Amino acid sequence: MMMKLDLQKTMKQNRQIEFIKYKLQLKQCTSIIKAVADMQKYKVEMQTTLREKGTLKQERKNFKQINSKDRKLSSVYEAWINGKKINQSPATVRLYDGCYNTHLTKLKNKIIDNITEDDIQNIINTMLNNGKSPSTINMVKMVMKPLLEINDVQLNWKKIILPKNDKKRTFKGTDEDAKKITKALLEYKHPIMRGIFAFLLSGRRIGETLQLEYKHIDFNSGTFTLPKEITKTKTSSTYVLTPLLLNAIKSQKTTKGKIFALKRDAANYHFHKVMQSINVHNMVMHDIRSMVAVVALRNGADIYAVSKMLSHKLLSTTEKSYIGNGTERAIEAQNTFLAVAGNSDNVIDVEVSDTDTEYEALKKIYPNATDTKIYEIMEMMK
């Protein structure tokens, strides 16, 4: 009898537990339905916010801790750029400073919380009217967007109309043009600039070259190392000191500190002076780097080797900047293959003597091929 009562009690408790579980599930289901209903209710509000601000991110402002005097753009910018000086390259900081001091000081006394999309658009429109390039105008967003966001100010940048950036600058000249430019640079009378030009012609950036110091040179191993602090990619890289670069260093009067005692503005002045002397008016100093890459690739240099020379982190960067869609390279590869594999349009039946050199033999087989193509075939055969 006692066991029967215990069993009934247990069954009753189990039913109560099941009922509680059912109520909990029902409550959870009701909560989900309610949440969906709430979301529907706020849908219009969220869409409006997205249209106006371009984001649903909430501003995190504590007005008790904010001193309105310190929220002026000039004060905020100074704090922001000082932080950038720690982890950004000097060249990048100069770009930010140039943009701010030239175009953004109109807003320097304005509290950043009151800066609007119209304020930014007015600056952009003024720059457009003054004929500024798209890349220069887009610097406004590169400076203002992170500066404002780090201080919890959100603008709808989708509302702000910016011009499309310029296509990447790529050297368009011929190999003969490149020879003329290189000769003029290496024969320039100014010894410091001549040394700088030597490093630029090895694929180095002007910012890296001007910051190169004697402590970065290892004459014993015949190498020099650019520390990550002065490189654009923030990675340390080591390069071989070619005879040209070694002579460039030895021709300087300096023996310690920076190798090339020249400011960037002075370097730009001398570069344009050289270009004017050979009637070239469409190049900037950074285009030397492009010229080196384009001419090397055009004459059969391996893209991986060129990428290493330029210190690109990704091979795709080199490809995108200097090869484009790769159509020309694809055609060259196809032509080279056909020349090696045999093509009735290009190959003739000839008798090759045992005394012929490799070059002479190939020239007889491919009489219409250029010397460059012959040497490419010889390399492939190796």
Overall description:
The protein is an all-alpha fold and 382 residues long. The chain folds into three domains: 68-149, Tyrosine recombinase, N-terminal domain (DNA polymerase, domain 1); 175-322, Intergrase catalytic core (hpI Integrase, Chain A, Orthogonal Bundle), CATH 1.10.443; 327-381, no CATH class. 58% of the residues lie in helices and 3% in strands. The chain has 16 helices and three strands. The protein has a three-stranded antiparallel sheet, with no helix packed on it. Strand 1 and strand 2 (223-226) form a beta hairpin. Helix 12 packs across helix 13. Residues 59-68 and 344-350 have low confidence and may be disordered.
Order of strands, widest sheet: 1-2-3
Which structural class fits the helix and strand makeup? mainly alpha
**CATH hierarchy: architecture of the largest domain:** Orthogonal Bundle
> Rough shape?
extended
Rounded to an integer in angstroms, the radius of gyration calculated over CA atoms is 33 Å
Helix fraction bin = 55-70%
How many helical stretches? Answer: 16
Which CATH class of the largest domain applies here? Mainly Alpha
- CATH topology of the largest domain, by name, is hpI Integrase, Chain A
Number of strands: 3
Integer average pLDDT: 77
